[in-house]
């Protein structure tokens, strides 16, 4: 699969269920004191939930501390983790450029302060990224349980505000960078599922240079990261329709920009953040979110954030980060874990959802496809977002379609859409 291929991967025969692997001991700093036995215990817990894959996170500066030094021992440890996962029936997706994790930035010293360079456009930095990503992919290319590479964890947050020191780029530069680094992954592991993943600013923020069109057309599948602390739960409450439907909304929103009617979509991150979703509501939120997501067509899989709670012995995390695990630090299954285990067991045999015959029009402005545009209409409080929630509340299962394609008969027919409505028709 080349990075230029906009047709994506074939939809999964049935949805995958997995977890973003957060080590119970040492968090992602575990790479500094790698303990394969501890990893095995963690993966035993994930496997016991009936999940089939994990997404794992090499920390970029730990693996590539100098632009021309990729630590062989770190790469060996990554392969050992993948092999341990295989022994437990788990496939592995590897995120490359961490990048950003749970409010902390991890960038190599050779991109910062005295060596400050734009991580998306500086030729030396990009060439270092290419070699690094190709090396990780090649190290795993012969492992049957290797799904493929994700470029990095929400790396678009480095490209614009509210990041305090962004590496500013244009949408055209973002496009070039994405295709370059995805090609490196393909060179390292040909034919695997290589993709990129942004946080929701790509869909909601008007001046974000990573665009919906890039998310929905570049790479093997479209990834969405759904977090209701983005204003959704604050506005609609923990039990609000929009809160339980947020992941499904993002999946359907991604389809509006996809060129192919049935491009697979991976719900790659979703979790129950306290206190907006309190512990006694986490299981219900998990069930509502996953059921809503599986009511969307062409879902490749659901990967919950995250496997294990962050230890309270570690300082300075935002409060919500300590309690997102499906399991506690000592391996006890939490209510959300029990819910996801049940949903995974039931979901693999779930019938494919019926087409969504009513489509809500997304008019984000002409620039929103390839460049800057009015994407804020899609964000919580925006007309498209609120109209979608209103329709769902009325019992409708809405799709979303770009304004410029709302009268394109062949596109609508390929998606099973028979009726088109506009936000003003819904909201009055």
From TrEMBL:
Keywords: Hydrolase. One of its GO terms (molecular function) is hydrolase activity. Gene3D superfamilies: Glycosidases. InterPro entries: GH. SUPFAM superfamilies: (Trans)glycosidases (SSF51445). The keyword Hydrolase applies. It comes from the Bacteria. This is Glycosyl hydrolase. It comes from Streptomyces silvensis.
């Amino acid at each position: 699969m080349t990075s230029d291929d906009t047709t994506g991967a074939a939809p999964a025969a049935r949805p995958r269920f997995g977890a973003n692997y957060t080590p119970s001991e040492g968090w992602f700093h575990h790479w500094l004191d790698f303990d394969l036995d501890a990893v095995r215990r963690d993966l035993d817990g994930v496997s016991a939930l009936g999940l089939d894959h994990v997404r794992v996170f090499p920390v970029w500066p730990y693996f590539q501390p100098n632009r021309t030094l990729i630590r062989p021992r770190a790469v060996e440890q990554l392969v050992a983790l993948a092999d341990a996962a295989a022994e437990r029936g788990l496939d592995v997706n590897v995120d490359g450029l961490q990048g950003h994790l749970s409010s902390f930035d991890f960038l190599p010293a050779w991109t910062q302060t005295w060596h400050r360079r734009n991580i998306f456009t500086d030729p030396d930095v990009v060439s270092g990224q290419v070699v690094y990503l190709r090396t990780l992919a090649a190290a795993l290319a012969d492992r049957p349980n290797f799904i493929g590479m994700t470029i990095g964890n929400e790396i678009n947050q480095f490209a614009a505000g509210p990041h305090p020191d962004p590496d500013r780029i244009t949408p055209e530069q973002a496009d070039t960078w994405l295709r370059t680094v995805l090609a490196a992954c393909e060179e390292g592991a040909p034919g695997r599922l290589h993709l990129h993943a942004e946080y929701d600013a790509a869909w909601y923020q008007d001046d974000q240079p990573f665009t919906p069109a890039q998310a929905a057309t570049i790479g093997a599948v479209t990834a969405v990261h759904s977090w209701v602390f983005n204003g959704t739960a604050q506005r609609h409450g923990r039990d609000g329709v929009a809160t339980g439907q947020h992941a499904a909304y993002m999946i359907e929103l991604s389809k509006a920009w996809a060129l192919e009617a049935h491009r697979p979509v991976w719900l790659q991150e979703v979790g129950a953040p306290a206190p907006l979703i309190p512990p006694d509501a986490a299981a219900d939120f998990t069930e509502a979110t996953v059921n809503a997501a599986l009511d969307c067509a062409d879902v490749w899989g659901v990967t919950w954030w995250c496997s294990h709670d962050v230890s309270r012995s570690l300082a300075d995390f935002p409060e919500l980060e300590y309690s997102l695990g499906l399991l506690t630090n000592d391996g006890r299954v939490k209510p959300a874990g029990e819910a996801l285990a049940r949903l995974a067991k039931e979901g693999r045999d779930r019938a494919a959802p019926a087409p969504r015959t009513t489509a809500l029009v997304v008019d984000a402005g002409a620039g929103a496809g390839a460049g800057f545009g009015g994407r804020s209409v899609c964000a919580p409080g925006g007309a498209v977002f609120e109209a979608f929630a209103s329709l769902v509340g009325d019992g409708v299962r809405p799709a979303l379609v770009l304004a410029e394609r709302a009268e394109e008969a062949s596109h609508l027919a390929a998606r099973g859409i028979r009726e088109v409505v506009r936000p003003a028709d819904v909201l009055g």
